[in-house]
Design a protein that fits this description.
Layout (H helix, E strand, L loop, with lengths): L1 H32 L7 E4 L5 H4 L3 E6 L2 E9 L2 E3 L2 E5 L3 E8 L4 E5 L5 E4 L3 E7 L7 E7 L11 E7 L2
Parallel strand pairs: 3-6, 5-11
Antiparallel strand pairs: 1-9, 2-3, 3-4, 6-9, 7-8, 7-10, 10-11
The structure holds copper (II) ion.
Length: about 160
């Protein structure tokens, strides 16, 4: 009788461990499939130095590699309309001049909270076939004009 219980316990332990392994493998494969890149890095910036240290704009680092520096303030992103030609890798550096904002490019996995006093850094590899115009929006309520805080990212191929 006791041996039968031990056998049942072993079967259950094996089933639980194999389920955990299966879930972990599935999660890993799906994360790879959607190009999940994990949490972004943040680095502090002194509030008064923000405008000296952070110059909004687009910089091409090498062929297809762009650094896009964006400042969020109530209620706009600067720059507001970004056009990139054949991007392979985009490094977004996003900072807030006033309150908490949320930087999101709709339809992609770019989504980061922009905390005043920090620069959020996201490295994003857009899919090779991705082109067109995508909405950049603020997804953290940041005041009365929050709904008008949006811009565009246009990816041009060819
Ligand atoms: Cu907002």
């Amino acid at each position: 009788m006791a041996e039968g219980k031990i056998f049942t316990e072993k079967v259950w332990i094996i089933m639980i461990i194999s389920t955990l392994i299966a879930f972990t493998v599935i999660l890993g494969v799906l994360a790879e499939a959607i190009s999940y890149t994990g949490p972004s890095a943040v680095c502090p910036v002194k509030y008064v130095e923000l405008n000296e240290k952070i110059k909004p704009g687009v910089k091409q680092l090498s062929l297809g590699v762009y650094e896009v520096t964006i400042i969020g303030r109530q209620w706009a992103w600067t720059p507001n309309n970004i056009t990139l030609k054949n991007p392979r890798k985009i490094i977004f550096k996003v900072a807030s001049e006033d309150v908490l904002h949320g930087f999101e490019i709709a339809g992609t996995n770019v989504n980061v909270m922009v905390i005043p006093g920090y620069v959020a850094v996201i490295t994003w590899t857009p899919p090779k076939d991705m082109e067109g115009t995508y909405i950049i929006l603020c997804n953290e309520y940041c005041g009365i004009g929050h709904q008008s805080m949006y811009g565009t990212l246009t990816i041009v191929r060819g």
